[in-house]
């Protein structure tokens, strides 16, 4: 219920601050729940992805430090966020999203690189996808990367790609992981090209 209440509030705030959120190829989203997989470019991407894919509701990974504040913890808990210790993730970082995806009520937003300043892909998204038997949907964001740029009302673009499914017989060996990573990277590049062939992300 909290999620449904806060979503229109977030949508209104985004409209007031910027007013130029454009969603592309929402028709590519599969029926049922799924895992949105994106390169991490700015901290407000999860909000935009969740707005763009509504009415689907999403789980989010959030760093454990954010849950120390009781008010913020309440908001995160009720917005389907769950804590992850980035230094020592532990099995819960996989078990919680897998369990949520298997129930079928929620989808998941995940950034394989972990941080906005890392290009190194982590294997968590692949493991979660295979264990939950849910497809990964590549998605990219292009637009302002700073709050100042956001307030200048430069267009914000979200582009959804076609689902990528990991066959249940596929073993996640290092070799197979690299093949799937390549699929994701190629999908992200294609989505970026669809929006703007001249786009090049530079970490801020």
Automatic annotation (TrEMBL):
Q: Does the keyword Acyltransferase apply?
A: yes
Residues forming the Phospholipid/glycerol acyltransferase domain are 34-144
Question: Which superkingdom heads the taxonomic lineage of this protein's source?
Answer: Bacteria
* Keywords in alphabetical order: Acyltransferase, Transferase
In alphabetical order, the GO MF annotations are: 1-acylglycerol-3-phosphate O-acyltransferase activity
An example Gene Ontology biological process: phosphatidic acid biosynthetic process
Query: What SMART domains has UniProt attached to this entry?
Result: PlsC
- Coiled-coil zones: none
**This protein's name:** Acyl-phosphate glycerol 3-phosphate acyltransferase
Lineage at the top is: Bacteria, Bacillati, Bacillota, Bacilli, Lactobacillales
């Amino acid at each position: 219920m909290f999620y449904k209440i806060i979503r229109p509030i977030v949508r209104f705030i985004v409209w007031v601050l910027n007013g130029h959120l454009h969603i592309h190829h929402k028709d590519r989203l599969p029926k049922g729940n799924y895992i949105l997989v994106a390169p991490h470019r700015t901290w407000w991407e999860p909000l935009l992805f969740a707005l763009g894919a509504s009415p689907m509701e999403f789980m989010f990974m959030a760093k454990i430090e954010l849950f120390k504040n009781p008010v913020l913890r309440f908001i995160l808990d009720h917005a389907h966020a769950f804590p992850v210790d980035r230094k020592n993730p532990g099995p819960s970082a996989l078990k919680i999203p897998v369990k949520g995806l298997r129930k079928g009520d929620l989808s998941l937003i995940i950034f394989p690189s972990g941080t906005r300043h890392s290009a190194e892909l982590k294997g968590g998204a692949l493991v979660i996808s295979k264990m939950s038997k849910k497809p990964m949907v590549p998605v990219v964001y292009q637009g302002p990367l700073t709050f100042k740029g956001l307030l200048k009302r430069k267009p914000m673009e979200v582009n959804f790609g076609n689902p990528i499914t990991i066959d249940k017989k596929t073993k996640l060996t290092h070799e197979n992981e690299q093949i799937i990573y390549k699929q994701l990277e190629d999908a992200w590049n294609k989505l970026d090209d669809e929006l703007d062939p001249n786009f090049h992300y530079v970490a801020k």
